[in-house]
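Quick one, tokens below:
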């Protein structure tokens, strides 16, 4: 029991990451973008925030994603409970096509992000590992992050692990541009990883490409 309490306290003081997926009615895309931009700007000023980005999916502009990074779980909880957060989320509700899919993570592999530019390409990939293959899959993805850190045009390559389902992960990539991202997709280490992952995966390799909100 003591060990369990110590582990929980350690998690509370570790950086906390939240990845949220948001889909609105196509006719509400512009209005939703404005609300999400306001949420982004306000959240970046909050105590304990170390990153807040709103992304818009390429090819499906009515789909957004939010990447949040917080100093610890306490800072993230304070943000979630803040009146301004609630007000902006209430404004967003009538525009939604589905409930917001919000996933809280810890950082399994988090590097030093480089400055992004206007043409930066964001890739969010949900990876679901079969329970019995979790550790093997984590090792494979960690190796991919090491190999990919050497690729041209890489600005960020993080692996986030869901707190309540540790076999579910979000791979966060940011590339200088489309050409760099496409070269990575066909690189030898990427192909090797995808081949190794297939028998360990519990679902489709859900990869989505975004750009920072305008």
């Amino acid at each position: 029991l003591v060990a369990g309490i110590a582990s929980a306290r350690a998690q509370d003081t570790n950086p906390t990451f939240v990845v949220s997926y948001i889909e609105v009615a196509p006719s509400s895309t512009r209005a939703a973008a404005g609300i999400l931009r306001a949420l982004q700007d306000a959240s970046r000023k909050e105590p304990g925030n170390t990153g807040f980005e709103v992304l818009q999916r390429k090819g499906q502009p009515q789909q957004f994603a939010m990447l949040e990074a917080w100093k610890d779980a306490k800072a993230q909880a304070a943000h979630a409970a803040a009146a301004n957060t609630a007000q902006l989320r209430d404004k967003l509700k009538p525009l939604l096509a589905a409930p917001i899919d919000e996933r809280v993570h810890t950082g399994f592999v988090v590097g030093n992000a480089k400055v992004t530019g206007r043409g930066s390409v964001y890739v969010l990939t949900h990876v679901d590992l079969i329970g019995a293959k979790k550790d093997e899959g984590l090792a494979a993805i960690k190796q991919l992050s090491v190999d990919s850190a050497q690729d041209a045009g890489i600005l960020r390559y993080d692996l986030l692990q869901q707190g309540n389902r540790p076999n579910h992960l979000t791979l966060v990539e940011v590339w200088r541009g489309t050409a760099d991202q496409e070269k990575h997709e066909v690189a030898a280490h990427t192909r090797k990883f995808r081949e190794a992952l297939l028998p360990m995966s519990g679902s489709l390799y859900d990869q989505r490409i975004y750009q920072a909100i305008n």
